[in-house]
Amino acid sequence: MADDKQAILYRMVLPDHICPFGVRAKQLLQAAGYAVEEHILRSREEVDAYEAKEGVETTPQVFIGGERIGGADDLEAYLAAQ
Length: 82
Fold this sequence. Notes:
The chain has 82 residues and is of the alpha+beta class. It has helices at 20-31, 44-54, 72-80; strands at 6-14, 17-18, 35-41, 61-64, 67-70.
């Protein structure tokens, strides 16, 4: 794996709900050979605070090379264009 294939993933894993889009984003990144630095949001309060701070409406959020790619669908399109 190339050193530049690093991604940061913020995803929701609540006690009663694991976001399927976050799981999908992680799987997409791993399948594409990215090392994934995960930041797990473990409560609704953490999710809401993250979304407010970043100015986004949903999680997961993926960052590659310091650039926000977006959620799982955005990541899929990004990877397809590579």
